[in-house]
Design a protein that fits this description.
Elements lengths: L1 H6 L14 H6 L5 E5 H4 L5 E9 L1 E6 L19 E4 L5 H11 L5 E4 L3 H9 L4 E5 L9 E5 L6 E8 L5 H15 L6
Parallel strand pairs: 4-5, 4-6
Antiparallel strand pairs: 1-8, 2-8, 3-6, 3-7
């Protein structure tokens, strides 16, 4: 936003973080740009999709959990543990969760959403698999890469009919900076 503001001081950028109904506010024109997993928006009308990045899957544990020392976590490392599943998990993540819980040595229970899952992790009741884009880098949690080749495409979306120069420039700045955060634009 700082980089963009240096070029377009008269344009107001107002970020909004919402897991619920974020696509509704975009489709009704309340927001101009939305971040999403690609599968959720690829068939929506009047949407221009801008590829952003591929998010990997991580196991989230407490920082003091024995698994926190691992460089990568495999399914076998979860034996004797409880895994949170469900909630708003994307289909690719649900597939991995289902493969894991087929093992009778791994317990599981359902969670309504990511924040609830983190509460159970903090309470030392379970661990959770999560897309990396949700990592807020809180020191109480350790995000360990999970051993899978599965990634999930993340995108930015704009309205296909919106061709404002200021909006397109904001996207350019955002995409360029994200792909090269050391770049001084």
């Amino acid at each position: 936003m700082r980089i963009y503001h240096n070029e377009e001081a008269s344009v107001s950028v107002t970020p909004s973080v919402s897991y619920r109904n974020y696509l509704n506010s975009f489709m009704t024109g309340e927001t101009d740009i939305v971040f999403s997993l690609k599968y959720r928006v690829k068939h929506m009308p009047d949407v221009k999709i801008h590829d952003f990045f591929e998010t990997h899957i991580y196991l989230v544990v407490r920082s003091d959990d024995p698994l926190a020392e691992k460089k990568i976590v495999r399914k076998e490392d979860l034996k004797g543990r409880t895994l949170m599943v469900g909630g708003g998990s994307p289909p690719l993540l649900k597939r991995i969760q289902n493969e894991i819980i087929m093992d009778p040595e791994i317990s599981y229970f359902n969670s309504d959403d990511h924040d609830t899952s983190l509460t159970y992790v903090a309470a030392d009741q379970a661990v959770v698999l999560s897309p990396g884009f949700l990592n807020d880098h809180h020191p109480d949690y350790r995000w360990i890469p999970f051993d899978t080749d599965v990634t999930m495409p993340c995108v930015l979306c704009t309205h296909a009919s919106d061709n404002r120069r200021s909006l397109n420039r904001f996207l350019e700045v955002l995409l360029e900076y994200y792909r090269n955060p050391d770049l001084k634009l």
